Fold:
Amino acid sequence: MTDLLDSDATAIAEAVRAGNVSAREVASATLSRIAARAPLNAFTHIAEPRLLAEADAVDRARSAGTSVGPLAGVPFAVKNLFDLKGVTTLAGAKIERDNPPAPADAPLVRRLGAAGATCAGALNMGEYAYDFTGENCHDGASKNPHDLGRMTGGSSGGSGAAVAGGLVPLALGSDTNGSIRVPASFCGIFGLKPTYGRLPRTGTTPFVDSLDHLGPLARSVRDLALSLAAMEGFDAGDPASIEGLAPAGPADAKGLRVARLGGWFSGQGEPVSDAAADAVATALGASDVLDLSGVAAARAAAFIITMVEGAALHMDAIRTRPHDFDPAVRDRLVAGALLPGVHYVTAQRIRRAFQATMRAAFSKFDVLVAPATPMRAPLLGTQTVTLAGEEVLLRPNIGIYTQPISFVGLPVVTCPVPQPDGLPIGVQLIAPAFREDFALSAAATLEAAGVAAAPPVYAGV
Amino acid sequence: MADTERDPIDTLIEAAPTLVGLTIDDRMRPGVRTHLAASLKIAGAMGPAPKEAAPTFRP
Structure:
C-alpha cells in the first residue's frame, strides 16, 4: 500500500478499477498516513466518515459492475476556501469560524466525486488567500515536507504540503497572484493554474474576483490533466465561468515553439531559479529568449487590483472586527481601501494592454518558460531576503514571477525541478489562453525526460 | 518637510472615517502606513495606460 500511496492518482484509480485494491483500503491507508504525518499541519478538517463512506460507495459500484469513474477511489483534499457540505468554510480566517456549515459541496468537489474521487477533507491556507508563505496566524504554518523548518509557500500551503508529503495524491487550491504556483515550487510538485474562466469558482470564498483562479496540485502531469478533465465546464454561479468552452485537449501536443522569458523574468532571484528555468528551456528546445515589454507595470497593476478588490470584499469585517484579522492581512486591506479609484481603473487599462503584449508573443511561440519563484522555500518566519544583491522584504517579492502572468489569466503549469541538495524549485510553463494542453504537453515532456519530477517526501520522524 | 506640512499618508489615514467609515487605531496605524505608502509608490510606477482600453476583462 505504501507504494500505491506514493504513486499518483492515475495509478490508484487504475488499481481500484482493476480490483487490485479496494477504495476502502486506500482510504484507510490515507487516514493513517495523514495521522502519521500530522506535523505537516496540512489539514484543518479530516473528513474521515465521509472519506470512508465515499470509498465504500466506489467499492459497491465496482462490485455491481457499474462505472466507477476515471478517479475511482482517489483521495483528494481541498484548500479550506472550498465549500464542503456540512463543514464550515474557513478561508483561513478566524472571522469565518462561527459561520454555519456549508449546505453543499462546491461544484469542483462535486465533479471530482462524480469521477470517483473520495474527499479526505480541508486544508490549511493563508488567511483569505492574501499570502505567499503558508503561514497562518490562527491555524499555524503548514510545513514543507522537504524540511519541516521551511515554508510551504502560499496561500495554498496545506495543498502543497498534503501532496508533496504523500498524504493525498491530489489537492485543489486557488491562485490569484501565484497561490498554486508558489507552493508547487516550494514543495516540489506539479501545479496547474488554468485559464481564467475555465474552472468555475462557485462555492468558494473569493479573494480578488477579477484575478481568482482554481486548480489542481498533483505529483504527475497526467494527474493534472485527468483532474482538469473531470472538473472543467460551465457553472452559472460564477460570472467569470465561460459557457460553451471546448474542453482542454490532451497533453500530447507536438512541435511546440518554446521560448525562455528574459528581462523581468531573469536575474531577479537566486541563481538556482534561473538555472532551473534555463534547464527546462534547454530540455524543451527553446531557441529564443523573449524580453516582454510592460511586465513591471503589469505586476504593479496586479498589486493594486488585488489590494482594492480585496479591501472591497472584506470592508464590513474590517470595520466591525479589525482585530480578528491577521494583522499582516488586515493592514494591506485597509491600505487598499484608501487607494484612489483612478489607480484601480488605470490598473485595469494596463491589464488590457498587457493582454495584447502576451497575445503578440504567442503569435510566435506556444509555450513560454519562466521561473516560478525567485527563491526556494525560505525558513519559517523569514522576513527579508537578499535578491540581486539587495536585501528586500520577502512577502511582497515571492510572487514577482507569477503575478504578471495570472494578471492576464493565462494557463500555467508549474514543474518541479529537483536539486542536488533535495530542496526543489519550480518553473512556469505559460501557454496561450485556453491552451492548457500546450503547457501540459511541455510538462509531460520534461517529466518523461526526468527534468521535472515530484516524488513524495517526508522529512519528519 | 516643514513643521506645518502634513505627511500625505497621515492625512489619508486620518481621513479614513470619512472616506471608508473606518477609524484606524494605533495598533493598525504602523502597518497601514507602511502598506499605503508602498502601494501609492507602486501605483505611481504603473505609468500611463492606454485611454481607449476599457476596465473590463476577458481572456
